[in-house]
Amino acid sequence: MCEFCTKHGEGKKWYENIANYTEEVFSQVNSERNAKAFLSRLYHSLKTDVERAYTWKRRFPRIYGLIAYPLVAKHLKKTHFGQIVPMEDIENILGNFSSIVRLPCVCRKVTTGENKRYCFGVGMDLTPLFKGIPDFSDFDRLPAAEAKAFIRQLDTEGNTHSVWTFNTPFIGAVCNCNRDCMAYRFQLQMKTGKAMWKGEYVASIDPLKCSGCRECIKRCYFGAVFYDRMNVKCLVNQKNCYGCGICRAVCKNDAIALLERSAVPQVAKDW
Ligand code: SF4
Ligand code: SF4
Ligand code: SF4
Q1: Which ligand 1 atom is nearest residue 178's CA?
Q2: Which of 17, 39, 66, 216 is the most buried (most CB within 10 A)?
Q3: From the CA of 233, how far away is ligand 3's center (Å)?
Q4: Where is the domain boundary, 168, 197, 226?
Q5: 222-252 pLDDT, tens per residue?
């Protein structure tokens, strides 16, 4: 289990500790005023601040790597970070709540200009905070079963799932992302900071079931699957694997399984 489980999990994975979704934890680490200010600035910060950080990184790569990168990561870990969570754990999370709010995806608005609703507010009702914030005026409420079906569909279409804090350990959103996600771009394309932690799992391919079709390579956003020409099979580089599990949906041979990260010694401490 990761350090967040140790600190905030009460013996479980930290995102399965329902206390972390409650008003009580929100009020311990947050205030309505700060949360509103954060949400009001989110579009601007994803559009402008990320680009600015990337410009600094390109201009001064060494200094950025030594000083800014760790500072950014430390700041995000405290204020707003995500962790990858596979579909089955997302279903368990959603099972605890009867009503779920589907929210606008601010990242996709920045990267593609589209107005999509791929984020979900679970637990504490955050909608009173949205008053007067145009970016969050367009939301709807879904019963948990409908939310699960929608997210399951997003999984088969190749969206990874993650939980996001609004001042850790309060979890305010379950997100469903592809390469248009700003956290993905910030962390894996621009390599400007760490905003997203690896999940509690890693993938493994059963060579006896794998036909070497390579569909999983196309599906993986993290460059974790490679083709072994000699054996005509795909393999997972577990160092790169985020444990999202979305590669499973494209495998017709059911050859891919998720293992508990803690049970795989070479990546057990790799977040
Ligand atoms: S983290 Fe994912 S779902 Fe959430 S706003 Fe970004 S792309 Fe959209
Ligand atoms: S999708 Fe399945 S069968 Fe195809 S290469 Fe990947 S693991 Fe093998
Ligand atoms: S190999 Fe790992 S990171 Fe890539 S899609 Fe599968 S579970 Fe996700």
Answers
A1: 7
A2: 216
A3: 16
A4: 197
A5: 999 999 999 999 999 999 999 999 999 999 9
Nearest bound ligand to CA 176?
1
- Domain membership of residue 270 (yes or no) is no
Distance CA(38)–CA(220), nearest Å, equals 31
Q: How far is the CA of 252 from the centre of ligand 2 (A)?
A: 7
CA-atom Rg of the chain in angstroms: 19
Q: What is the pTM of this model?
A: 0.95
- If asked whether residues 86 and 173 sit together in one domain, one would say yes
Q: How far, in Å, from the CA of 85 to the mean position of ligand 2?
A: 21
In a domain, 174, yes or no: yes
Cβ neighbors of 171 (< 8 A, separation 6 or more) are 15, 20, 21, 122, 123, 163, 164, 165
Which of 246, 251, 234 has its CA nearest to residue 201?
Answer: 246
**Domain coverage including residue 230:** 201-265
Ligand 2 atom nearest 209 alpha carbon: 3
Q: Whose CA is nearest to atom 6 of ligand 3?
A: 247
Segment 57-84 mean pLDDT? 96
Residues 32 and 161 both lie in one domain: yes
Number of domains in the chain: 2
Q: How confident is the model at residue 98 (pLDDT cuts 50, 70, 90)?
A: confident
Residue 271 lies in a domain: no
Tens digits of per-residue pLDDT, 185-203? 999 999 999 999 999 999 9
CB 144 within 8 A of CB 100: yes
CA of 134 to the centre of ligand 2 (A): 44
Ligand 1: nearest atom to the Cα of 182:
6
Residue 86 pLDDT > 90, yes or no?
yes
Check whether residue 232 and residue 163 sit in a common domain.
no
Average pLDDT, the chain: 95
